[in-house]
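Notes from hallway chat w/ T.B., transcribed later so I don't forget. T.B. wanted the structure written out for a chain they're using in a teaching module, and asked if we could keep both sequence and structure tokens in one place. Agreed to drop them here.
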Amino acid sequence: MALDLAIVPFHRRTHRLIASRHPTIGVFDDLVDPADAEAAMELESLTNDRLTGALGRLAAIPRADWAVGQTGATLAMAAFLHPSPGGGRFNSDGLGAWYASCDPDTAIDETLYHHTRRLRASDVGFPATIQMRELLSTPDCGLHDVRGRQGDRPELYDPDPTHYGGSQRFGEGLRRSRSDGILFDSVRRSGGQNVAIFRPRLLVPVIQGDHYTYSWDGSGRHTVSRLTNVA
């Protein structure tokens, strides 16, 4: 499956945008021992049903790959423990992955697409406003390079998220083979590049960058504003 793919060295700043409602720190930032982090999650799950499924996913990540005791460790782990319903391009909903872009404009276009799609399908609909927070990470790893493979591997680049089955099988196969992740072209922004990282420890430290507001009018047309002086 991946024998014809090059593994390229990757060490550069990446940009991930998440909704600002998510907490900035948590259990994995403060506890260095993975066993302590797991125990803390088990205690919290007694009063937080959302963590029940996360505990099962935590067990699916080799402890050597956990991000603990560093800035942004909880944010890194959350991407794996709380996957999107249906999964992402290269992961199933059984275990998440860290998706980020190599430049902020691509990160904006990627997230705008998915938020717009969800709003169109929801009862809330338009108009709508979402505040986003930028997460900056500089992984130092080797990534399976599928850039420029739209012609011979079209299943990896299907623009419809309901047709991610082929790319998810591909990505999960690489994860099982202990791949660090995938470097791929963006289908939302021409010339943009993205990464999907499969090991949380490669991501830390994760630091906060800019804040943005995504706004949609009643017809679904969007505007993006970068915020300054946001604590």
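Follow-up for T.B.: The CA atoms of residues 96 and 198 lie 8 Å apart. Might be a good example for the class.
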